[in-house]
Structures are given as structure tokens and as C-alpha cells.
């Protein structure tokens, strides 16, 4: 998200993180500007960094946003002001503060229009195949970065800024929203491998749309649940077995399909799996993680319990230890129905 030199303020901000003072360093990355690089092997599920925002703002007309940001900056102390101004601006012109905001801001939650600037987290660069996940915790008002796969010492720490889809759609969005062209490991593949990746990502979007169709979920839940299984396989293939938060969303969709037809047994398993993914991606103290933990213990508390039918009414779980993994997965996703 950034380029330029690392200021003393920026480096000290990273070093003062209470979670892991020597887990990473802020340094120049070839062809990317500034980024974060691991100083040690980082296991999957590790909290790498957490920060409160320097400032937050709603999007607005350029002139109005510039005035708003100027006012907010004046209220910050001098080190914080320097941290903001040291961030890269991919949109130079007569709105320098707005350009920095546009280049670096992360949304305060999925789909939120409110953007936030962080002293160190905004140094983390994008990858279409990220090794870390950024999450806004609305309870604590803190942004966290967790490792969603093992990260090797010397490897750059990356997150995803894009909205999914094939490479052309991702590139267009990243250029318009952040002002850069992605050259990550996925986008830099050979044409044949990139086509395969694009096909998988298009299939991911297609399956996601099908799963989200409430009429299909009501009328043909078996096929909807099978789509969840197909999506699971496609995500694992595209993301090398580390899809991160995308997997939590999938399991929650499967939970909703199951509970809407009265199947508390499968719904509980899906909620447990969604909670486990969220625990790995964002910790256990986010509202979303707490919700999944509660639903795993009491799936019928969900508002859509038997909203469509009671034809799957079932409370007996098939324990994974009683059958082999493939048989349990077939039972869970009803792929043999």
C-alpha cells in the first residue's frame, strides 16, 4: 500500500507493538516501495500486529474530504502527523491528504464505507494470494493482522485488497481504487496458468451467487449444500489450501442452509468450523467469532431455524472419529443424497 523511505517514527511504531516486537521489520521491497517482512518463521494463526487507527473518515467529494482530513490531522500529535504524511500517495494533485487516504485506507469492516489509516498496517502490500488477513474488530475498534498460512522468515507479509474475480476484474479494481497494477505471484503467472486461475476464481463467484440464492436454498437445499462442497474444493485449489476468511463465509452459508431446514446436527458442525477459521484469521474476540461460537453450541438460536422446512430435522452428529474423513465429509455436505 506504500512506497518511499521508512521514517524513524514509522519504524518505532512497528517495534513498539506489544504482541511481537521482533516478528517483522518495515523495509523497502523491490518494485513495491515499503512493506513488512517477517524476521522469523510465523505459524498459521499468529497475531502479527494490532493497531488503532490514526484517523478515520467517510468518503466524500474531494474538496470536502480534504478539509475534513486537514481538520483531523491538526488534532493529531506531531509524530502521528508525520506517520500519516510519510505514507505513499498514488493520486498526487491538489488533494494530497485525500490521495494518501485513498491510497492507504482500509475499510472498518466488510463493506464499510468508513476508511481508516494505520501507522504500520498501512505499510502492508497487497497480494491476490495473501499470507495474512486484516480484520476490523468493531468491539475493540482495533485492526488486526493474523497469519492465515505459515510465513517463512524473510517472506513479505501480505494481505488482499481486491474483491475477488478473475485477474482483469481485480486489476481494474486495484487500479481505480488504489492506483497500482498488481504483479503478485498469481497475476505474474504464465498465460496458461493465469487462465486456469481465472477459471477457478470465476467459478468461485458463480458458486457464491448460487449459494446465496434464497429461493434455491428453500426449494433445493441439497444442491445448495453440494455447491458449498464444490466451493470448498475450488477455494482450496485456488488458494493452495489457505483460503482464509473465505472459508468462514462458506461454512456460515452451509450453516444457514442446514438450520433453515431444521438440521441442528450439521448446522452445529458448520458453525464450529466457521468459528475455527475465524479464530485462526481474526482471534476469538470479534463479534463474528463470538457469534459462531454461540451458534455452534446452540444452532437453533439462529433466526432462520426451520424457516424453510423441518424436513432435515436432526440433532445427532456423525462424529468425525467414528468414520474416515471422506465419509464424514460426504455426510456433512450430503453429497451422496
From TrEMBL:
This protein's source sits in the domain of life called Eukaryota
Chain ranges of the SET domain: 22-162
The annotated region (Disordered) lies at 1-22
Q: Which Pfam families match?
A: SET
Q: Which InterPro entries match?
A: SET_dom (IPR001214), SET_dom_sf (IPR046341), SET_domain_protein (IPR053185), TPR-like_helical_dom_sf (IPR011990)
- Compositional bias (Polar residues): 1-16
Matching Gene3D superfamilies = SET domain, Tetratricopeptide repeat domain
Descriptive protein name = SET domain-containing protein
What is the organism field in this record? Bionectria ochroleuca
Origin organism lineage:
Eukaryota, Fungi, Dikarya, Ascomycota, Pezizomycotina
Amino acid at each position: 500500500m506504500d512506497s518511499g523511505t521508512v521514517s524513524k517514527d514509522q519504524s518505532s511504531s512497528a517495534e513498539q507493538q506489544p504482541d511481537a516486537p521482533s516478528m517483522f521489520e518495515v523495509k523497502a521491497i523491490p518494485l513495491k516501495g515499503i512493506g513488512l517482512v517477517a524476521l522469523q518463521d510465523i505459524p498459521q494463526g499468529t497475531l502479527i500486529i494490532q493497531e488503532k487507527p490514526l484517523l478515520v473518515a467517510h468518503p466524500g467529494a474531494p474538496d470536502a474530504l480534504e478539509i475534513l482530513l486537514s481538520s483531523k490531522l491538526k488534532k493529531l500529535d506531531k509524530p502521528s502527523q508525520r506517520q500519516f504524511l510519510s505514507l505513499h500517495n498514488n493520486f498526487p494533485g491538489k488533494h494530497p491528504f485525500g490521495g494518501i487516504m485513498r491510497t492507504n485506507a482500509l475499510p472498518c469492516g466488510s463493506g464499510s464505507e468508513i476508511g481508516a489509516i494505520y501507522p504500520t498496517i498501512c505499510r502492508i502490500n497487497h497480494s491476490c494470494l495473501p499470507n495474512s488477513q486484516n480484520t476490523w474488530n468493531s468491539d475493540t475498534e482495533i485492526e488486526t493482522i493474523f497469519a492465515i498460512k505459515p510465513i517463512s522468515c524473510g517472506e513479505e507479509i501480505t494481505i488482499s485488497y481486491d474483491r475477488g474475480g478473475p485477474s482483469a476484474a481485480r486489476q481494474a479494481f486495484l487500479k481505480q481504487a488504489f492506483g497500482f497494477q498488481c504483479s503478485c505471484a498469481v497475476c505474474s503467472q504464465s498465460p496458461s496458468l493465469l487462465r486456469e486461475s481465472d477459471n477457478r476464481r470465476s467459478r468461485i463467484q458463480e458458486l457464491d451467487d448460487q449459494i446465496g440464492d434464497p429461493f434455491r436454498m428453500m426449494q433445493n437445499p441439497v444442491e445448495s449444500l453440494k455447491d458449498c462442497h464444490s466451493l470448498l474444493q475450488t477455494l482450496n485449489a485456488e488458494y493452495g489450501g489457505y483460503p482464509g476468511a473465505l472459508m468462514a463465509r462458506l461454512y456460515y452459508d452451509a450453516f444457514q442452509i442446514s438450520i433453515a431446514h431444521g438440521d441442528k446436527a450439521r448446522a452445529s458442525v458448520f458453525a464450529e468450523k466457521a468459528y475455527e477459521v475465524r479464530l485462526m484469521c481474526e482471534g476469538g474476540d470479534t463479534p463474528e467469532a463470538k457469534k459462531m461460537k454461540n451458534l455452534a453450541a446452540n444452532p437453533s438460536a439462529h433466526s432462520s431455524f426451520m424457516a424453510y422446512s423441518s424436513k432435515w430435522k436432526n440433532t445427532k452428529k456423525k462424529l468425525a472419529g467414528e468414520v474416515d474423513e471422506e465419509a464424514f465429509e460426504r455426510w456433512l455436505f450430503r453429497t451422496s443424497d
